[in-house]
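User: Hey, my collaborator sent me this sequence without any context and asked if I could get a structure. I don't really work with proteins. Can you help?
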Amino acid sequence: MVLQEFLSLDGVSQGPGSPDEDTSDGFTQGGWFVPHLDEAFEQVVTTWLGTADAFLFGRRTYENFARDWPEMTDHPNARILNDSPKYVASQSLTKAGWEPTTILSGDIFAQVAELKRQPGRELQIHGSARLGQSLLAAGLIDEVRLAIAPVVLGSGRRLFPDGGTPVGLRMLHNETTPSGIAVHVYESTGVPEYGTYGADA
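Assistant: No problem. I've predicted the 3D structure and written it out in structure-token form, which is a compact way to encode the shape of the chain:
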């Protein structure tokens, strides 16, 4: 399973796509990622989407995607997002109109683990930072893809908050687009390793 997130340099993942995307907790800086989009990054995202068999969302991200993507039929990535199987993790959602969608409730971890055991290509999480945090802490994320924009926001919900579960990562790939988006791809390696600088091997 792959976690894909847009981040600011100070780790904020909230509201990258528009001013009204996510104003929870008084966040007023939505849309901070958009000025840095370029053709090279669009190609990166298209390549990522091309490796997905299904998508997993938290409720808030699902509702935003379900509102916007059915209307974006001229976008090159619309078909795969609109037509592919989608799962939304929510204890409160009772209806999901963006077909084909399955609502996961109850023991989310067990259901996601079962999805991972099914044959096929990638199950991708887009956005949905709270869900991504919990699945990473539970050891259910295999790969983390971060797109880091050259902006510091100073406030907003972070993908890796204080008090989060430590996780080790190993870099698989990195590149920077002409507009300055740093793309980092990591493999999850479990518990971090620690050492002392200068100590004998």
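In plain terms: The radius of gyration is 17 Å. You can pass these tokens on to your collaborator as they are.
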